[in-house]
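Lab notebook, bench 4. Continuing the backlog of folding jobs that were queued last week. Each job is logged with the same field layout so the records can be merged later without manual cleanup. Today's entry covers Electron transfer flavoprotein subunit alpha, a 400-residue chain. Filled in by technician R.K.

JOB TYPE: sequence-to-structure
TARGET: Electron transfer flavoprotein subunit alpha
LENGTH: 400
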Amino acid sequence: MSGLVVDAEKCVGCGRCVRTCANDGIEVVERRARVLDGCVSCGMCVDACPVGALAVERDESGADTSGYRDIWVFSQVGADGVVLPVALELVGKGRELADERGCRLVAVLGEHSDADDANARALAAAGADEVLRTCDDRLAHTDVECYAAWLCALALERRPEVILYGATNFGRELAPRVAVTLQTGLTADCTILEMDRERGLLQQTRPAFGGNLMATIVCPNHRPQMATVRPGIFPAPEPREVGEANVTDVLLDAAVYGRVNVLSREKVGQGASIADAPALVVVGRGIGSKKALARVCRLAELLGERLGCVCEIGCTRPVVEAGWLDYSHQVGQTGVSVAPRLLVSLGVSGAIQHLAGISGAETVVAVNEDADAPIFGAANYKVVGDCMTVVDELIAQLEK
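JOB STATUS: finished
OUTPUT FIELD FOLLOWS
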């Protein structure tokens, strides 16, 4: 049995544990501490107890982890019926993990009943050994209840060792529901995934404590191990030559049904997401003022013309908070993760959350007045100087 326990012989009823607890998880009755339902076993009262009367006991036995095999990637399909790019990115990363572990990589795909084989072929070309597919109109819409029931039933039957999800709005809703049903762990918004080959432990690294440090999390006692990853964190793999995709069709239980009927869909915003931009100019507070954005936009326009692609504008969180740009432009762990071919960073210091969001960029050009700015650690080309002076010079050169 896990949780907070009280040694009645040692407890003196001083009440320091009550004053320390932030969750109304303990009380003192007749000079003895008593654990309440609000206790979350955080252990703060244990540290505060002057007589050592409190302890947190944890059940480390967990479930039987033997017999679990394979790495699964939940392959979400968009409203257009095409598998999302983040699914292909995760298949590429899953291929590396599966090779390291010496197991198979399985893409799990739910589609409407009249779907063709295009998505299965794309997943196979990205590296999946098998595509586990269900074609059913109940999966035509992103109904979390239907998808959770479907995925949990498959996992209970086939016992995957790892399941990876894209951290889309739907993925963030689906993954916790599956984790609770399967009684396993889940790490959100991972930026690094590595495999311990000997023990089969997925090492899941993500920013913690407001991005001030990187925490590596493992789930040693429960299966499947599960993690969500933001779009753009890992590069999409180059498609490989495959013949017929290895597709296994499975049925959705007849008892599963959705309680939500989708009547229509409307787009929230217009235009392409910065996550899809092949080139990006990202600005921080170092550009000086909102007025400088006009010159930055001109630079992005000229770069796009020169590169033959769309060049979008991104920004850091302080720029959004200042009202210079809206949230859809925010790049970083609390915004959008990007992976452009070219990223030009202007006046960005490089907080760890921001660096996590640009880790997928192929080439980074950074301009900052501070020679010790953390952004330079992620840059391929570094310019120490006033960023707007550099912008004006770049515009002048490109206009020639």
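OBSERVATION: Residues 3-57 form a domain with the Alpha-Beta Plaits fold (CATH 3.30.70.20).
SIGNED: R.K.
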